[in-house]
Amino acid sequence: MLSRYYSYLQFEDALKTILETLGQKSLSDIEIGKSVNGRSVYGIKLGTGKIKVLVWSQMHGNESSTTRALFKLFKSDSFNSLLKNISLYIIPILNPDGSEKWTRVNANNVDLNRDAIDLTQPESQILRSVFDDFAPDYCLNLHGQRTIFGSLDGDQPAQISFLAPAGDLEKTISQARLKSMQIINAIHGQLNNRVSGIIGRYSDDFNINCVGDYMTSKQVPTVLFEAGHSGDDYSRDQVTDLMYESLKIAFKTIQDSLVVNESNVVDAYNSIPHMSKAYVDVLVKNYRSVSGLQTLSVQYHEQVKEGVLYFVPILIGINREDVLNGHRVIDLNDFPHYNDDLIIEGNLEIRSKSLDIEIFY
Ligand SMILES: [Zn+2]
């Protein structure tokens, strides 16, 4: 099982094993293009059903949970039955250079999810040519989100989130969007009681440079999946399982191709809560500084060094009004003797042995 960070070589090894298990071709046979730095981008075709589904993951290199969920799906016993009426085209990592370096952007520092129209990057061109040639009936756009998202009131974190993107500025409820909403509604209905926190809904403000918006504008139902964070799931193992379940529900919903009752679908979709950027990783309350009592917002910065993913606690704000909660909340009124043990470095790294705030991996 791949852990949260893996090198591209580790990924290729794992993919090779999967291909053997699935009776598929070799790695070189499924190369569909190269990244900026010359790494292979792979496309796997599975199933012969009549509904064509295009899935891509890790277009943002530092979002690996959905790629791991795909691997889990490949290995699951129910995988073949999910494919009864489906032909799948899966690009497990669209941004290999970003995945290696654990960056959102590609090697040219471009966010591939803002390159849908300009197509300046080879990775964007690969995705577009697969979209044009394969002509999918559905698209699943797989991502991970930072630890900052929660319910609007800040009471609960958003462990997973979804979006049925708009296809135009008017946010028209097209047949394509209704189908996307229906998939999201099914996931929400079946997993809402299983998440720690909420299932969130992204804003549907239209941006044609975003890949999902572009594909919806072409009348192809597209669903944005976002693996989020809850509690101390920094390995993202829990959310990987939820993404695996979400994918299974999505494939099942697509196969059933239920009749759409427009107003019911829209109402159910709109009942999924919006999110706010209300969370930080650690919120330290009642810190006694020379300028008085303070609330410290601490966020882990993720860095890969020599193949290891480190979480570095950084002070990102003091008394911030937009920060409503933390995945961990420490009230120093409860531990007054630890106040002096909390060190804020010049580079804003923060540490306290007593409070267990340190770099970890
Ligand atoms: Zn993303």
Distance between the termini: 18 Å
Total strands: 17
What is the H/E string? HEEEEHHEHHEEEHEHEHHEEEEEEE
* The level-1 CATH class of the largest domain: Alpha Beta
β-strand percent reads 25-35%
InterPro entries: Peptidase_M14
Keywords: Carboxypeptidase, Hydrolase, Metalloprotease, Protease, Zinc
Pfam families: Peptidase_M14
GO molecular function, one term: metallocarboxypeptidase activity
In short:
The chain is of the alpha/beta class.
Description:
This protein has helices at residues 8-21, 65-75, 79-82, 96-101, 122-134, 175-191, 211-217, 237-256, 262-270, and strands at 31-34, 40-42, 44-46, 51-57, 86-91, 138-144, 150-151, 158-163, 198-201, 222-227, 275-276, 279-289, 292-305, 308-318, 325-331, 343-344, 350-351. It has 361 residues and is α/β, with parallel strands linked by helices. It has 2 domains: 8-276, 3-Layer(aba) Sandwich (Aminopeptidase), CATH 3.40.630.10; 279-351, no CATH class. The longest helix is centred in the C-terminal third of the chain and has 20 residues, at 237-256. It is globular. Bound molecules: zinc ion. Zinc ion is lined by residues 60, 63, 143. Keywords: Carboxypeptidase, Hydrolase, Metalloprotease, Protease, Zinc. One of its GO terms (molecular function) is metallocarboxypeptidase activity. Belongs to the peptidase M14 family. Its cofactor is Zn(2+).
What layout of secondary structure does this protein have?
Elements: H1 8-21, E1 31-34, E2 40-42, E3 44-46, E4 51-57, H2 65-75, H3 79-82, E5 86-91, H4 96-101, H5 122-134, E6 138-144, E7 150-151, E8 158-163, H6 175-191, E9 198-201, H7 211-217, E10 222-227, H8 237-256, H9 262-270, E11 275-276, E12 279-289, E13 292-305, E14 308-318, E15 325-331, E16 343-344, E17 350-351
Parallel strand pairs: 4-5, 4-6, 6-10, 8-9, 12-15
Antiparallel strand pairs: 1-2, 3-5, 7-11, 8-10, 12-13, 13-14, 16-17
Helix pairs in contact: 2-8, 6-8, 6-9
Bound molecules: zinc ion.
The site of zinc ion (ZN) has 3 residues, from loops.
